[in-house]
Amino acid sequence: MLDVRRLHMLKTVAARGSITAAAQSLELSAGAVSQQLAALRHDVGVDLLRPDGRTVALTEAGRVLLEHADRILAAMEDAECAVAAVKGTVGASATLAALPSTVARIVAPALTALGADHPQLAVTCLITDQAQLRELTLGTVDVVLGQHYHHLPETTPKGIAVSPLLDDPLLVVTADDRAAGGSDGRPVGLRELATHHLVLPPPTTDCGQAILHACQQAGFTPTARYVTADIAAQLALARTGLATALVPRTAIAPATAGIHTAPIEDHPILRLLFAATRHTETTNPTTAAVIAAIRTAARQDRATYLPPA
User: Fold this and answer.
1) Per the count of CB atoms within 10 A, which of 7, 63, 160, 265 is most buried?
2) Is 5 left (phi over 0), alpha (psi -120 to 50) or beta?
3) Cβ count within 10 A of residue 188
4) Distance in angstroms between the alpha carbons of the first and the last residue of the chain
5) Angle, nearest 10°, between helix axes 4-16 and 30-44?
6) What gap in Å lies between CA 245 and CA 235, rounded to an integer?
7) pTM of the model
8) What CA–CA distance (Å, rounded) separates 284 from 264?
9) Where are the alpha helices (DSSP H) in the chain?
10) Can you state the percent helix, strand and coil of the chain, rounding each to 5?
């Protein structure tokens, strides 16, 4: 009989690309993973992995087995969710992966509410931009608070259930110079930014691609004076007047001082914020509680406007 843990190791190695990377993810030694995969190879009687440069790849038999492993692992999670639903209680732990730009206005309020409503639930929160949905498919996280820019194609992996939360517009952020006769908060035409010193995220990021796409639609290609994906750095440069930034609204904490924000009038740049979890036939009460708290925080944020700086 096949060992489910070994099937999960095979899936992790296939996703990570090497036994060493898989071992780090599983918090095991590379030797332990190699031994378990050797045992799995013995169970099926055929090679499952082959060298591929500095990485490893699945053989044809490995690909076939992984397809079945995905169904087996999904069925096991369905069974666990069904039992949890019968119990009807929120569990003791969950792991949430969230974007740094969602912490101030969504994640922090959601976790505060969860702590009050479900004090027994300990939520580990991973603040990261990296491959969140892949981690969801591998079972290292239970819920993802992610983003999708509207002009980009959908890339949701198989077996993932996505729940839209809100459209989050990028705002034009400048120094708060209204006392000196600066902007009065009117919507800004994106073409106006062609002459600004801009701080932009790298063009390899989703946000950077979205900004580039919108600017080209407005008739110009933006030239960045500063390039960083760090929103705190973007806001600092805007606050000092060194640059104009384009920042998602939910990434700006309500109490942020020294900046002025304005909506984009003609070519709005929107990202969809969503909550995602693994698809199961029966709803897991624990992940449902986490997503409900995130949804409530997002709904409240949707109705909240930045106070005057």
Assistant:
1) 7
2) alpha
3) 20
4) 65
5) 120
6) 7
7) 0.84
8) 40
9) 4-16, 19-26, 30-44, 60-87, 108-117, 132-138, 206-217, 231-239, 285-302
10) 45, 25, 30
In the structure encoding, which two tokens stand for residue 203, read together? 């063009």
Residues making up the chain, counted from first to last: 309
What confidence tens digit (pLDDT) does each residue in 164-222 have? Answer: 999 999 999 999 875 433 344 689 999 999 999 999 999 999 999 999 999 999 999 99
- More reliable by pLDDT, 121 or 179: 121
String of b and e for 129-158 (b: at least 16 CB within 10 Å)?
eeebbebbbbeebbbbbbbbbeeeeeeeee
Give the DSSP letter of residue 184. Answer: -
Amino acid at 8: H
Distance between CA atoms of 76 and 71, rounded to whole angstroms? 9
Helices 19-26 and 4-16 sit at what angle, rounded to 10 degrees?
Answer: 120
| Category of 14 on φ-ψ map: left (φ > 0), alpha (ψ -120 to 50) or beta | alpha
CB 275 within 8 A of CB 127: no
Number of other residues whose CB lies within 10 A of the CB of residue 71? 10
* Distance between CA atoms of residues 152 and 235, nearest Å: 25
Do residues 8 and 140 touch, judged by C-beta distance below 8 A? Answer: no
**Which residue, 64, 121, 68, is CA-closest to 96?**
121
